[in-house]
Specification:
alpha/beta; single chain; 9-stranded mixed sheet; GMP Synthetase, Chain A, domain 3; Rossmann fold; 32% helix; globular; Luciferase, domain 3; 5-stranded antiparallel sheet; 3 domains
Length: 572
């Protein structure tokens, strides 16, 4: 694996991303291809993109913004978003990427979360297309003192002679605020510096062995999320590897378009969360595989949420007839607090889940190989080794490093660790320690390879035994009638111990029958009693802007009696 300082031929020596943009001026080569909602494609070279970003950056300074000011981006168009983000970065203004509204069903919650982000970040200016301004009137009224600019109109104005020049930008300066998805708590703004981004992008380039003359990416990932932004905008820009962007909404409406785009553009690298792999399998019938040629792919990265062994196996088997090679799937692990990437699996090596004994895992926090003894088993997908120039530790409650195959909290060390949370000193103190980033995730190392088992704060602790919620949710989701990816497991206070509750969205069938089957399957497969199964209508579960279920919010709404559905309680 390359060191993080080593880049592809003609790579960068920049210490800030503003310098990366400046280096791209005048350099030949492909850049971004944006597929629009109507299917038309528009290509922009990296040189053209950098030049226009620098022009727009000076426009921002002309509006009164200065280095260190925050500007929020609610910009659905991918090309407009990329240019707006890079324009702010080029002059030291700090962009705050935000998700656009996804619909009206949870509009009030969207406005509450967005207002929280704007206030927490201390945003002075909001880039918002005129087409969304009317819809978001409640949000604009909820936050005082906002300057709202329509990016299409504002950036179309010619740059006048004498427009302000940018101040010097340093590696330690904050480059952008990445708000966490809020799957376990209220969104927090991660302070990502220029040095963090350069280090993490270099590590990604090395881990994926990106080469400008060979590689091309395809992405449908939301750009306001760190995986879409850092992984498919910033790292390719630094490596000068071309990328084709498929609108996220087009993927959501027709998941088969993702791999059709890969096939047509001969992409070598693409990524998706676990649910994206599952959707691609479900929405690509076997008879349509002959239209695809996926032999071009070197890497299908899978991260952003826990990887289900069966999902990965199913994806590899389903698309093998279309030319997908063994070893192309590459599980990875990362988070906004680490800029993005923490670890990658090995390219070209088929994914082999680590199968361990269930009893020592639940009772003692030990990951003993199942081959050593008969009995019930549990499997975890390996997330690979730490990116070059960085280190992963697994520690106990007191922060002491644990031996291999002992489960504890994952700690990440290295130059990609962000500078803390914006305006939240207490949360920064807890997570960004002298010993590294306390990720809040539980896992273990085996032969130096990381296996993530659960979020620490989401653990289900019943009768003194630990159960990770993902395993419970995946097991429940196998029951016909439930919407996969829309199942949440948590605990509530009980008379003698914590009790397990499952809330899930019902796709079809009789609620009482489906709930009874869910309880039976969890008891049979995991030997775990379930106190209550609550089945709700599709779309009712609270989710993050990136589509992940929010366990803490679901539990909160359940305890408050907000969630209602066809519940089945255990017989007395």
């Amino acid at each position: 694996m390359r060191s993080p300082e080593t880049l592809p031929r003609e790579g960068t020596t920049a210490s800030t991303f503003a310098q990366v943009l400046a280096e791209n001026l005048g350099r030949p080569g492909d850049g971004c291809t944006f597929i629009r909602e109507d299917g038309h494609e528009h290509s922009v070279s990296w040189s053209e993109l950098s030049r226009e970003a620098l022009r727009r950056g000076r426009q921002l300074l002309r509006s009164g913004l200065r280095k260190g000011d925050r500007i929020a981006l609610i910009v659905p168009g991918q090309e407009d978003f990329v240019l707006a983000f890079l324009s702010a970065v080029s002059v030291g203004v700090i962009p705050v990427p935000m998700s656009p509204p996804m619909g009206l069903s949870k509009f009030e919650a969207y406005c509450e979360d967005s207002a929280h982000i704007l206030r927490t970040a201390g945003v002075r200016t909001l880039l918002l297309p005129r087409s969304l301004a009317g819809l978001l009137n409640p949000l604009l009224h909820a936050v005082e003192g906002l300057q709202v600019l329509d990016p299409e109109e504002f950036f179309a104005e010619p740059l006048p002679v004498g427009a302000p020049e940018p101040e010097a930008i340093l590696p330690a300066d904050v480059m952008f605020l990445q708000f966490t998805s809020g799957s376990t708590a209220a969104p927090k703004g991660v302070r990502v510096t220029h040095a963090n981004v350069v280090a993490n992008c270099a590590a990604i380039i090395g881990a994926l062995r990106l080469e400008r003359e060979r590689d091309r990416g395809v992405s449908w990932l939301p750009m306001y999320h760190d995986m879409g932004l850092v992984g498919f905008v910033l790292a390719p820009l630094m490596a000068r590897c071309p990328v084709t962007f498929l609108p996220t909404l087009r993927f959501a409406l027709s998941p088969r378009l993702w791999l059709e785009t890969v096939s047509r553009h001969r992409a070598t690298v693409t990524f998706a969360p676990n649910f994206g792999l599952a959707l691609a399998v479900k929405n690509t019938p076997a008879e349509e595989l002959q239209r695809l040629d996926l032999s071009c792919l070197r890497v299908v990265g899978c991260g952003a949420e826990p990887n289900h062994p069966e999902t990965l196996r199913s994806f590899a088997a389903h698309f093998a007839p279309a030319g997908l090679r063994l070893g192309t799937l590459v599980p990875c692990y990362g988070m906004a607090e680490a800029t993005l990437a923490i670890s990658f699996g090995e390219i070209g090596v088929p994914v082999a889940p680590d199968v361990i004994q269930k009893e020592p895992y639940h009772a003692s926090g030990l990951a003993r190989p199942a081959s050593e003894a008969p009995g019930e088993q549990v499997a975890f997908v390996p997330c690979g080794r730490p990116v070059a120039g960085h280190r992963i530790l697994v520690v106990d409650d007191k922060g002491n490093p644990l031996p291999e195959r002992h489960i504890g909290e994952v700690v990440f060390q290295g130059p990609s660790v962000a500078a803390g949370y914006h305006a939240d000193a207490e949360a920064t103190r807890r997570s960004f320690t002298a010993d590294g980033l306390r990720t809040g995730d539980c896992g273990y190392l085996a032969d130096g390879v990381l296996h993530v088992t659960s979020r620490e704060k989401d653990l289900l602790i019943v009768n003194g035994r630990n159960h990770d919620p993902q395993t419970v949710e995946w097991t429940a989701a196998e029951v016909p009638g439930l919407r996969k990816g829309n199942v949440v497991a948590f605990t509530r206070p009980g008379r003698a111990t914590e009790e397990v509750v499952i809330v899930a969205e019902l796709r079809e069938g009789d609620a009482a029958v489906v709930a009874r089957r869910v309880r039976g399957r969890i008891q049979r497969e995991l030997a775990l009693p379930v106190a209550e199964v609550l089945l709700v209508a599709p779309g009712e579960l609270p989710k993050t802007s990136s589509g992940k279920v929010r366990r803490s919010k679901t539990r909160e709404q359940y305890l408050q009696g907000v969630l209602r559905g066809g519940a089945l309680s255990p017989a007395n």
